[in-house]
Specification:
hydrolase; bis(5'-nucleosyl)-tetraphosphatase (symmetrical); 189 residues; mainly alpha; Diverse_Catalytic_Enzymes; iron
Length: 189
C-alpha cells in the first residue's frame, strides 16, 4: 500500500492550493471519524488524500472515460461535478497503478455515495462533506449528527444534497438516491 507521503506528492501538483488545504482537512476529519467509528485507518487516510485527484481535469477528458473501468456510462449527464470522483479512481489506477479496490471504491463514491457503502466509504464520503472548511447551510447539522451516528450523518448529507439539486431542478444521480434509501430505515427515530 502507498504511504501518505506518496499520496500527498501525487495530489499536490494536481490541486490548487485551496483544494489541497481542503484535502488536508478531509484527511484529518476522516481520521477523527475513524477513531470514533472504526475502519481501516490506513485505507481511509489514503483515499482521503487521493479523493480529489481529478478535480481539475478537463471535463472533456473525463467524459471520454465514461463506460470504462470505474466510470459509469452516462455520468456526464448529471453535471461535471460528479465526474472527478469516478474518473479520479480510474485515473489513479491507470496513471499511478493504484490497485486497492477498497480505496478505489472510496474515491469513486465520495461524491455520490451508493447503496451498501462500506464503513470506510461512509467515512470518506462524510469527511468530504463535513470537513471544517465546509460552511454551506446544513454542514453544521451533519457535523453535529456525526458525533453520535455515522449513518444518520451520511443520510442527512445525502438528503441535503438531494434537496439542493431538486430545488435547482437538477438531476439526482441514481446512486445518491439509492444510498439515501439504503441508509434511511436505520436512521429514522
Amino acid at each position: 500500500m502507498w504511504t501518505e507521503a506518496e499520496a500527498a506528492a501525487i495530489v499536490r501538483p494536481a490541486l490548487k492550493k485551496r483544494r489541497y488545504e481542503h484535502t488536508e482537512r478531509v484527511v484529518e476529519t476522516a481520521d477523527e471519524l475513524c477513531t470514533r467509528y472504526g475502519g481501516d485507518r490506513g485505507k481511509i487516510r489514503l483515499a482521503s488524500w487521493l479523493h480529489d485527484y481529478a478535480k481539475y481535469r478537463e471535463p472533456e477528458e473525463m467524459r471520454a472515460l465514461e463506460g470504462q473501468g470505474t466510470v459509469p456510462e452516462g455520468l456526464g449527464g448529471f453535471g461535471n461535478e460528479l465526474l472527478h470522483s469516478f474518473c479520479g479512481a480510474e485515473l489513479l489506477k491507470r496513471e499511478h497503478g493504484l490497485e486497492d479496490e477498497a480505496v478505489l471504491q472510496m474515491i469513486a463514491s465520495h461524491t455520490t455515495g451508493r447503496a451498501g457503502m462500506s464503513l470506510e466509504e461512509k467515512i470518506v464520503f462524510l469527511a468530504d462533506y463535513i470537513e471544517p472548511g465546509r460552511t454551506f447551510d446544513g454542514a453544521e447539522t451533519a457535523r453535529a449528527e456525526a458525533e453520535s451516528s455515522l449513518d444518520k450523518a451520511c443520510c442527512t448529507a445525502l438528503a441535503q444534497t438531494i434537496q439542493f439539486l431538486t430545488a435547482k431542478r437538477l438531476p439526482v444521480y441514481p446512486d445518491t438516491l439509492a444510498a439515501y434509501n439504503d441508509l434511511l430505515p436505520g436512521t429514522v427515530r
